[in-house]
Amino acid sequence: MPRFIRFYRSFVGISGSTNYAQGAYCVASSLAFITERIARTATWLPSFEMKHPDGSSFEADFGLFAKPNVYEHASTPHLFLGECKSFNSFKPEDFSRARTAAKLFPGAILCFCTLNESFSPYEIRELSRLVIAGRKRLDVGKQINPVLLLTGKELFGQYRIESRYDIYGDKKEMAERVYMRNNIQETCDFTQQLYLGIEPYHTWRDKKRQKIIARRAAKKKATA
């Protein structure tokens, strides 16, 4: 366990068996990181539940509206919907809730935030599925449901004395460029590469386009 995390647990006087103020530490750290490092102009709400007249409901650990920056192609606000864990793992019901959020809110950014510094193989598999499903194009400059991943590297790193970018090792320079531009979807893409090993969005999109072109060419040749 990294020294900073051991210090954090000692500082707040809690052990691994506690609920970490019912998850409030992770929520607060996530909101602080997003508003200070990703979305400079934002309005947020922690821990809310929405109920539909039919009796169904949707719950999130936080919600946030962020104004696109001047370098983005998007013209409408970004909606963030957050699922937070302290040092526990994300469970099937968490991913089910995220899929519900994706259906209810096309264009929303699905945030998975944890105080752990990495994800388990099960979490990586389920998160990867959400990422690929969310990469479909919704509108000009927006994917249908980008996925943002924040771990202890980001959430604890914002309080480090040394350079916050040192936590990324050989991805340090890439992280500096991403956070300097404050492009929200680019930041999502960076965290997906970092924690899931998924290829960049533009590489994935180009491969998909080439497959479509190849299929059309094959179909045209077959009917010629």
What does it look like?
This protein has helices at 3-12, 24-38, 92-104, 121-134, 152-157, 172-181, 184-196, 201-223; strands spanning 42-51, 57-66, 78-85, 109-114, 137-139, 142-143, 147-150. α3 (92-104) runs parallel beside α4 (121-134). Strands 1-2-3-4-7 form a five-stranded mixed beta sheet, with helices on both faces. The protein has a two-stranded antiparallel ribbon with strand order 5-6. It has one domain (3-199): Trna Endonuclease, Chain: A, domain 1 (3-Layer(aba) Sandwich). A hairpin with a 2-residue loop joins β5 (137-139) and β6. The chain contains eight helices and seven strands. 46% of the residues lie in helices and 19% in strands. It is an alpha/beta fold.
Could you give a quick summary of the protein structure above?
By secondary structure, the chain is an alpha/beta fold.
Key traits:
about 220 residues; alpha/beta; about 20% strand; disordered N terminus
Walk me through the topology:
Elements lengths: L2 H10 L11 H15 L3 E10 L5 E10 L11 E8 L6 H13 L4 E6 L6 H14 L2 E3 L2 E2 L3 E4 L1 H6 L14 H10 L2 H13 L4 H23 L1
Parallel strand pairs: 3-4, 4-7
Antiparallel strand pairs: 1-2, 2-3, 5-6
